[in-house]
Amino acid sequence: MKVSIDPALCQGHSRCFALAPELFDVDDYGMASVIGDGTVPPALQHKARLAMSNCPEFAITIEE
Amino acid sequence: MTTEPVAEWASDYDVFDPAYVTDPYPIWAELRETCPIAHTDRWGGSWLPTRYADVSAIAHDIAHFSSRGIAVIPPPAAGEADPGGITFVLPPIGTDPPVHTWSRRLLLPWFSHRRVDGYEATARELCNRLIDEFIETGTADAAAQYAQQIPVRIIGMTLGVPDEMSDTFTGWVRDLLEFAHDDDRRGKARIALITYLLQQLEKRRTDPGDDLISELLHTEIDGQPVSDSHTLGIAALTLIAGVDTTWSGIGSSLWHLATHPADRQRLVDEPDLLPVAIEEFLRAYSPVTMGRIVHEDIEVQGCPMKAGDRLLLNFPAANRDPEAFDRPEEVIIDRQINRHVAFGAGIHRCAGSNLARMELRIAVETWLQRIPDFALAEGAEVTWAGGQVRGPRSIPVMFPVGSRTAAAPDAGCSAQTALAS
Fold first, then answer.
1. Model ipTM?
2. What would be the CATH architecture of the domain defined by A2-63?
3. Per CB distance under 8 Å, which residues of A are interface residues toward B?
4. CA A47 to chain centre
5. Which domain holds residue B166?
């Protein structure tokens, strides 16, 4: 599984960072980025799906 | 001012009508089905979308919907009586790009995760100190004695203003938002707030501190200092937007727990669930409705909107749309899929959302730790305020008597420590 963020859609809600800090980081402006290349270890796949389904901007994509 | 009770919500709604303030949910449900974008001629006229898709699309369409008018009803004689020759606008939320872009960039770091983490210990101390004042009595007003007291003091820290101004600030903010339909109260509060902040600007110009106003006074944008109007506006926005809103959110959360014992007990037993539950309270009881001004004529879902028309971004109704949420009228404190827009959407996403979430979490967590068993007092009359910001204003509760904490540190001192860090 791989997770990615569309920086043009992210508005800094920081929901992904709150739900899955192992996978996402945010800067001082709230803009989110994936940690590393976005590869999601099996143990964190549930958290990745949670982050995606709580983003109000629909900015997170998951490739299974 | 119009005070006739509303009979026809689709064509004559009133966001200050007592029925709307007390229980808007069935009204929104009916409108979503029958007339998803309602219209009224009251309060200068406005449009009111109630579906998630429409609210979100309009929030993102900054080309057609300007933020130069964000109040739910137009201000009285805008700007004419403002002291000091100040043009009173509220950047970034009350502006469009380019002012929005640079002012938001200045403001956001003040409410970043890192900065907000530094306020957490102070917030917890403050909550404990407030609880100490009533825990030995077995009764309290969870809105007036607790929720209302928290955000204003944290925001006061960021602005570097003294703690004893808290009640005055609360009064001004209530007059500006909750009593916006009362021209006299709204006008006086506006002038009092501007006058106070202008004095603060003068003070910080020669004696700067570690606060937002001081930073703005010593910041340049493209080689030019930030204007006094903009500095004052950003400071005023921080105060106005950071008080009523979060206080309403804390109050609604405690009201829910006072009236839903199973949810209360589950959060006592599973405190780790609290951040998820807070998001559900934000969804189900979203406090904030924001205004927009139609920039150029546009038709939305068959509604002919004209340039200059006011539109109310009904985030609270969007968050109860069955097209966007499973069982939206139920409060499910472990809801997994929750794309709520309580903090808005698009470029005006609430700049203080990190701070609000922290305050909500600490306020509810501390309450449940100290007062795990509580309910509405017998014969309690819960009152609600509405309009721009909806939330409970009185929540009489009762609980088994508890004991004060030992030697709670003085919150005023730690506020300074947190700011310095």
1. 0.97
2. 2-Layer Sandwich (3.30)
3. 11-15, 17-18, 26-30, 50, 53-58
4. 9
5. 83-290+327-420
